[in-house]
Every structure is written in structure tokens, then in C-alpha cells.
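Researcher: Going back to the complex we discussed earlier. I've cleaned up the inputs and rechecked each line, so this should be the final set. Can you rerun the prediction on the complete assembly and write out the structure?
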Amino acid sequence: MTNTELDVTIGQINVIPPGEGRNFDVAGERIAVFHARSGQVFAVQAACPHKGGPLADGLVGGGILICPLHAWKFDLNSGEALTGSCSLKTYPVRVDEEGCVVLTVGGSQH
Amino acid sequence: MSHGGVSELRKKNLVVIGNGMAGARAVEEILTRGGGDMFEITVYGDEPYGNYNRILLSNVLNGSQHEHEIFLNPIEWYRDNNITLHVGVYAESILRKAKCVLGQDGSIEPYDKVIIATGSRSHVPAIEGITLPDGRDKPGVFVFRTLDDCREIAEYAQSCRGRAAIIGGGLLGLEAARGLQNYGVQVDVVHRSQHLMNQQLDAQAGAILKATIEQMNIGVLLSRDTRMVLGEDRVTGIRFADGGVLQCDMVVMAAGIKPNAEIGARCGLKVQRAILVDNQMRSVDDPDIYVVGECAQHRGHVYGLVAPLWEQAKVLADHITGAVPNAAYHGSKVATKLKVMGVEMAAMGLIEAEDERDEIVQFTEPKKGTYKKLIVRDGRLAGAILLGDISKAAYLLQAFDRNTPLPEDRLTLLFDIGASSKKLSVEEMPPEMQICNCNGVSKRDLLTCTKNGKRNAKAVMESTRAGMGCGSCKSLVAEIVEFACGGEIEEDPSIHYYVPGVPFTKPELIRICRELNLKSVSSVFRVLADGKEDAASKPGLASLLNTIWAEEYIHEPDARFINERVHANIQKDGTFSVVPQIAGGVTTPAELRRIADVAEKYDVPMVKLTGGQRIDLLGIRKDQLPDIWRDLGIPSGHAYAKSYRTCKSCVGSEFCRFGVGDSTSLAIKIENKFKGIDTPHKVKMATAGCPRNCSEAMVKDIGAVAVEGGKWEIYVGGAAGAHVRKGDLLCVVDSHEDVLKYAARFMQYYRENAKYLERSYGFVERVGIDKIRAIILDDEEGAGAALDAAIEASIAAYRDPWEEAYTAARPAEFASTLSTIQ
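Model: Rerun complete. Updated structure for the full complex:
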């Protein structure tokens, strides 16, 4: 397990329509990145810990993510499960001055 | 924290007189409050046993339970809890000045506090000949009160195998009668009053009960005052006040109870029927003497049932240990269940109406032995009698006990309408019973969740996931949560909202969105919810706005569930299913060939016929969708949305030799009219060419069935999925055009008035078919034209979503992953 953090620019924020999520394969991991209508961005593991549902296809609002398969709910900030028990792995993510989404991977995230 | 010095040095002495259910229960309650550290406990019990459940004695008599099964606390329990038990010793008196209790065996127990729990004994009426001239009990005369009584009765009955008379037609008498039958004895119940169980039943119920009891081959003699037990050296019969004689070999006294209050009277405590107590269960004369159970008289009441006794024991323990210093008993509401094999009876509260506020709800079916009577006062249950069918007893008992408001529909208080009569009540369901069959949630899981602080159905459902699958158990979950929370259920205001995140009902929301020109989901959150988005509320709002605004609706894909974003149905592995339109289930070789070609070209993992007479291509990746749509060249079948889905049909009059109407072309017209129309939940339709109904039109959300004479019956609110319901007949019309017209009007009324995710079957039941008929057919509210115009606008706004195959909607809509820049 590496502790070297790696910043990856995944593209312009506008490749993700407001309120939606898209998957990115980064450094061997598949990560779902969300562009909330509030302007915030979030990044979490792509597969739901419940039954592997594609989280990028979920509903987003108020900092909450709902998996499309069985409606498990997660807090996008912390990854905490609001229903069920398994939490999501989260990744630090920001939008830089040029409007690019920068994702940090490989850190010692939980 | 240091322990109080006094209790360390010397525990106080607590002497309990009486080891029946009340005494033992009081001791248990005291122990659970840490009373073992405060008190040296001594118990006097005049029966030579540990403590047993007297209520179950009739089960011992009738053989359904063995003696050892009814013991509550065996002798060892007393030892384990450091309790001194004077077993088989009668406590003679309390010396209040000297503060000690004298036992008949010469024991002297000093006390700081005393609990009198001497209970009661059988009331033996003044009847001549009960004893022999020498004062001994006459052989064959029994009371029915203790385990010993029970044994003696059984032995005597087995040896005589003759005839037994039970004096007393109350609860105990009837239980004894049924029990005695097991010993091959012919039993008669002799009762002084004019009807059986006059403490609990009115005359009508008493008469029905009499018939039921007589059918069990038990004789019932009413209005008979027994004056004499006949027989020189043993019982040979009884004589009544009217001179009549009943031959019998044994007599069992079950004519009520008499509190054992003598010990109180002897030491100078006020006694009426029993020892008078205050709200802390103390004698009104001596704060160191507590009284509990059948020997206590509280505000004029002496309770002979177990539930009040439990309540008293709790208050006593709270007070004597100081656990709740201001603990107070305020009397009990009394309910009774008869435990007689073959008779179902429950009674509570008032027997008759008392004043003009009292409303009586009543049902009788004497031949079946069924009688139900409720006394409702100010919308709450003041009394109930249930005989023959007590399926509603648990519910009514709870409503009575907690004084909760009753539902407006009084009929539902008496019957589970439409439900199987075998249905278990919430209370009766075993804890391990699975309530939510989709997510495997048991009753115990739900109870645990409420115990952990979730106090309303929504919170419990979110936490346990019960009801979050097909949803058919939701009302049951709500009932269980209500049961578990008792009167302390928290009202969740959002249940009245159309969606939880925007605080308005559906009609309010429709009006406000129209007035404020809110045409997108994001604008609704911005204006009506302080800008706070709620993910779960988005799809419902999108559906509603689309219904209101049709062409003008501003589509925001993020507000839609993924199915509606990509116009396909998501599967368990994240792939999608593609269902092309096959109107009315009628297809062509060319169309089939195209579908086959697509299936081969894309190596589709499964091709399956659907229940809606279409062809499903399963296991399609999201990024393949646009190509597949293009290659199919067939419009979307909308098999993924909360919308009109499809219309099944039979071959009807075109080919079928029974067909009386053209169901296929009607189904095709329906498909073309309603395709893609958003609805609160999915809408499935069917047309049948004759009443044989091969396309199952009566269990569809909307169904049309051809009947002879060129007519069509329209059914609405049918279901055959998670819930099964035959649709209600909306009307009979005589043309395809009228079927389309009324189906459209119903659909629009459903769109505008149903809650989000409320299927038509729930909607029709909730609104009622009569009201729906009045609006759809008779145009009573004058809304017909507006409904027609609104649905026509939605139909006009329709475009095939699969055309996005040619006009890419948004960036990377269908990409499985996006590539990164670096």
C-alpha cells in the first residue's frame, strides 16, 4: 500500500452535468465523481458496498447520494452510510482555478 | 458514589404477607429496582409451594397444562435472592405498635415495612348443607381457587364420573365447567343472574354465550338461587330457592371472590370490601403498610384480574424503593378474555351506554355465536364485547387501554374488511415473523429499532429498510411501529407532503407551481425549500412538473431516476434492459427479424418475452444503448419509467372464435395515445375481446373488457403484482373512442391527485370508486374538460426518447466511464 498521494486532473467540471455523476478510472481504481447543483464536487468509490450498484447513476442532492439499485443512502462528504451499514471510500477532490476537477488518489484514506 | 451508611449497616426489614401472584410480583419488582440491597425480605405464604400463576389453574384442570408448567418462582428462587420464605405458614397478625408480624407457627418477624398481599378466596354463598353436621366439609363440595383445590376436584370427578354442578356462571365458573368435562363428568352451570358473565356481558351477548356453552353439552341454569346442598354424607344434589332440585354428585363453588382482608381489620386498618389504600398502595391508616392485589381497595375498586395487579406492583415497588418517589396508581382499565376451549370472548370497559354521548356500534349473528358491540364515547373506545370472533380484540384492547382516537370508519373496528379472517393481529405475530419479504426484516427487527429511538414508521423504514422493496408491507410496518411505540408515536409531518423535501401537499404544490411558474425541479427547491435539495424528492417533483407543464416543463435529467435519464431499465449488475414498442403485442416478421439481428450483433446475453407482450433485450451496457436504438429503428416501449407502460391484448374478434370486441386494435390505439405519459407510478393496461378475459384486463390499472352488444366495460384500480386486486368497474361504454376518452380522463385524474408512487389500486381505494365515477363520468366537479385538455397537452408533448440516439443529449450521457486528461 502506497502512501504517495497523486493529484489527477480528470477534466473540466462541465463534463459532468450539474446534479449528476460520472465514473473515472484513475490509477487502477474506478471512482464516481459528482457535480452537485450547489457547485460542490464529491468523489467516492464507484460501486455500492451493498450489491455493487453503479453509484454514478444515483440521485444526488443536499450532500446525499442514493444508489440506483436498492436506494441505499450515503453522505457524500464522509462516505457514511445513512441506511445499511457499509460506508463508502471517499477521495479528496476540488475544482481548480481553470475549472478543472482535481482528484487526489493513493493517499492514506480509509 | 458511596452507598448510604444506613443501608450498609443495617438493611431495612420488609415482610411480605402472601405469596400469590401479587406478593411475588411486588417482590420481583422491588428486586429489579435494587431493593435487594435495601431490604431483608421475608415472605409468608400459606400454600406449601413456591409461587404459581393462578390464572392458569383452569388449564391445569382441563389438562392443557401440567402443574409444573404454571410455577412462576420455585422455592430455589427465594433462596437465590436471599429471601426468607415461611412456606405453608399463615401470617396471623401484624402488631403495628411493636412493628412485627406473627406467624401461626410462632415465628415473629420485625418489620420496617410490610406488604399485605393476601389475595382473596372463593366467595362461598350462605348455602345450607355445605358442611356435614360435625362441621367438616361435605364430600363433593369444592371451591376452585388453589392448586390443591384443582387436584381434589380432578380426583373426585374421576372417581365419581357422575354429574357436577358449578355454582356461578362467571369467568371462573365457565372455565371450571369446561375443565371438568375432561373427567367424563356431566356439567351444569348454575347462575343467580339472568345471563351468563353478567359482569362482562350484556344480556344479548349472555344469551349467545349460553347457546354456545350449551352446544358444548354443558347445561346452563339461569336465575337459580342455590339454597341447599343435598345429601347425608356426600353430595347428591342441590335445591334452589324456587324449590327445584338438580341431582348431582359434586358441587364446585365459583361464585366470585372474597378479599382476604381480615389481617388488616385485625390490626385496625380501614377495611370495606378490602383494605383501603392510597395512590401509593399504602393503607390509608399506616404509611409503613402497603397492600397490593385482590386484598386492596383503591378508589372503591377491588381488582380480581391480573393486569391491574401488575400495575399496582410496579407503583408499590417504585415507591417503596424510592426509585420513583412520587409514583402513583390511578386505577386500571379492566379487560377480560375468557379462556374456554371453543369459546372466543373478550370484553372491556362499559357494558351498556351510559349517556347520550355514547354511540353503540353493534353486529350480531346469533346462529354463528358471533356478537360484537362497541361503546364509543367522544371518538374513543369506552367499552367492547366481542364474542365468537375476537380477531379485533388485540387492536381494540390497545385502543381502549391507551384511549387513542378511533378511525372514522367504524366498520373497520369490527372487521378486517377484505382481509383473510385468519390474519394475525400485530400483537399476536411472533417476533421472528418476517414482515418485509423483500429485505428480510422481522417483527423483532422493527421492535428493536423503535426501542433504539426511531419513533415513526418512516424513520424505522429508513433504518431497517423494511417496506423499501416492493412496498406492499408498508402499512403493516406502520402498524407494528405504532403498536411498538404505543401512544408515544412521533407524528412525521412529511407523510402529508407530496415529497418529503418540500413541505406541501400535492394540491398545494400544483397550485403554487402554477402560480409561481415553477417549471423545473431546481426552481422548486430554490423557491419552496430554501434552496435545500433533497435527493429522494427529485423524481417525484420531476413527474409532477411534467404532468403540470407538459411541453413547457424544463427537463433536468439529474432530477430523474437513472432509468428515465437513459430510457432503459437498470439491472442488478448495472447493465440495462431494452424493450422496443410492440403495440398491443402485435408485431411483424420484419420487426422480429430486426430485433433478432440486433440481439446477435450486440451479443445480447438474454432475449426474453415480457409479461406485457413485448420482447426484452437484457444485459445491455449503457454505452451500447444509442447504437441499439438506432439499429432497432423501433420506438421505445417505455418499460422502465413511472409512466404508462403497455397495453396487453388478446386476439379478440379478429381471430378468436369467442371474441365479441376488437381488442387488438383498441390496444394499439391505447398504446399510441398514452405512450410515455408520466404517471405517479407505473400504469399497466389491457384489453380483452370477451369476458373470458385472457389478457387479464380486470387486474390491470386500467382494463377494457368487451361484452356482447358492442360494449366495453372499463375497470380501474386492478393489480396482480405485489398486491392483488380486481379492478372496480368504472363504466360501460359502446365504442373504442369512449374507452380512450374515459381511460384518459381517469389517467389524468390519477396523475393530478395520486401521491407519488401510489399505484392506481391504492388510489382508487383511497378516493373511492363512487367519487371517481362522479368526477370522470358525471363531471360533478366540472373538471372533465380540464382533465381532457391537460392529458391532450401531455400527449401532444410526447416525443420518442430513443431519438436521442441521433441527437446526443448531453456530454457523455451514455459513457460507462470517462477518460481523464492526465
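Model: Worth noting: Chain A touches chain B at residues 8-11, 14-15, 17-20, 22-26, 30, 36-38, 51-54, 57-62, 64-66, 68-71, 73, 82-84, 100 (CB under 8 Å).
Researcher: Good, that matches what I expected from the previous run.
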